[in-house]
Amino acid sequence: QCVRYRGEGLDSDFDLEDFEETEFTPEEEAEFVHQYPPVYYISALHDDGVDELLGHLMSLATPTKEFALPPDHKTDMSMNERVEEIIREKLYRCLHREVPHRIAQVNRALERGRLPDGRVALKVDQDLIVATKSHLKLVMGRGGMTLKRIEESSKRELLNSLKNEGYDEVILNLHVKISRKNAYKRSLVG
Questions:
Q1: Residue 140 CB partners (closer than 8 Å, separation 6+)
Q2: 107 within 8 A of 124, measured Cβ to Cβ
Q3: 4, 6, 83, 167: which has the fewest Cβ within 10 Å?
Q4: Residue 79: partners with Cβ closer than 8 Å, 6 or more residues away
Q5: Beta bridge partners of 22
Q6: Burial level of 174, CB count in 10 A (0-12/13-18/19+)?
């Protein structure tokens, strides 16, 4: 139960027994709980209070007892969205500053097919649209090495995530292009 003490302007040598104790009304207590998070005193060493903290965290983490997806589904994203997300993650990991934020991704092809040896493959052709020539150079890297690293790491992760869907190979082609809209603006200014 929450209790507050009345007594402003106290000396450093005061005694709490001298103060009047007031209980919160239910409305005040609800407001107090809303404003301040609960405090849990725990000891993992002695397993004291851990269950209460875990119960509180679980109540915050799972607002409903129903799951958003059935147990046999891993995501509600389409194949196109998953491919874009994996490639975008690799762009963020391999590039720095504002460059990955300024790249637009456009899927030109996303096809399921069979290789000559009978294995099932996913072919992905994606354009990475950048705003400036300097961004193009940063995405390409020296001798195309940065783009190659993005392709290889994306291809590995795509294959790992798609193996259980029946894919044996991923053919990934990334193409870097400069935005026509920005090129038109530069020609007007220059």
A1: 146, 147, 176
A2: yes
A3: 6
A4: 110
A5: 4
A6: buried
Q: What does the alpha-carbon distance between residue 182 and residue 190 come to, in Å, rounded to a whole number? A: 12
Question: What's the rounded Cα separation, in Å, for the pair 83 and 171?
Answer: 12
pLDDT in tens, 13-25: 556 566 677 787 8
Which token pair is 74? 């891993």
CA distance 123 to 168: 11
CA distance 145 to 149: 6
Q: Are 36 and 45 in contact (CB under 8 A)?
A: no
| pLDDT classification of 63: cutoffs 50, 70, 90 | low
What local confidence, expressed as pLDDT, does residue 159 receive? 95
Q: Nearest to residue 75, comparing CAs of 152, 162, 169? A: 162
Confidence of residue 144 (pLDDT cuts 50, 70, 90): very high
Q: Please spell the DSSP secondary structure of 11-61, one letter per residue.
A: -TT--GGGSPEEEPPHHHHHHHHHHS------BTTTTBSHHHHHHHHHHHH
Q: Is the pTM of this model over 0.70?
A: no
Please give the Cα distance from 58 to 47 (Å, whole number). 18
